[in-house]
Design brief:
Blueprint: E1 3-5, E2 10-13, E3 17-21, E4 30-34, E5 37-42, E6 45-51, E7 57-64, E8 67-72, E9 88-92, E10 95-100, E11 103-108, E12 113-115, E13 118-121, E14 124-133, H1 136-148, H2 152-165, H3 173-191
Antiparallel strand pairs: 1-2, 2-3, 3-8, 4-5, 5-6, 6-7, 7-14, 8-13, 9-10, 10-11, 11-14, 12-13
Length: 192
Amino acid sequence: RLSLVGSEMCIRDSRIGAVRFATPVPEPAHAVVTPARLRFAWPGHELTITALQDAPAIEIAHRGAGFALALRGGGRAPAGWEDGPPVRTDDEPDGWRVRAPWAAMRVAAPGATREDRRLLLPAGTARAWIVAGEDEDEVEPALARLLRDAAAPAEAHDAWTDALEDRFEVDDPLLRSLVVHGLANALAARKE
């Protein structure tokens, strides 16, 4: 379970850990919400957060000057695991690996550098992924697919939202948005 926690501007799985935006999104940022995607734009930057449809992952895409992510402390154990081994975090060249007996998470940002427990995404166009699953056997193959073809997840997401929008034609943007979000939620509920 991955979720975006708006008040803290962090992406979080309460049972394994959280990734915080170490570079704050400024107040005058323009935000656009589409199904499973949140996009912020402010002078010199665009930040897109997408819950991927075909992977247990969230993609963070950034364009502009450098942007930083920080890993927050380990999450809380689910019921029944409170007395078990603690969450273990290991640094990786491109991010972090987080392991617990009940879940695994990998944060990866190809081309990023590390500084003071932060992951600095390079200026220009950069991507990072937060992949979470039951264990590393689920996380690592999903991350490998993302790293193999970095553009594919965003393209698949765009095709998915285009297909949703093609199901309903109306000139009223608010009504169109409501129907498209309703369709997205219905399809997501159907998948589970």
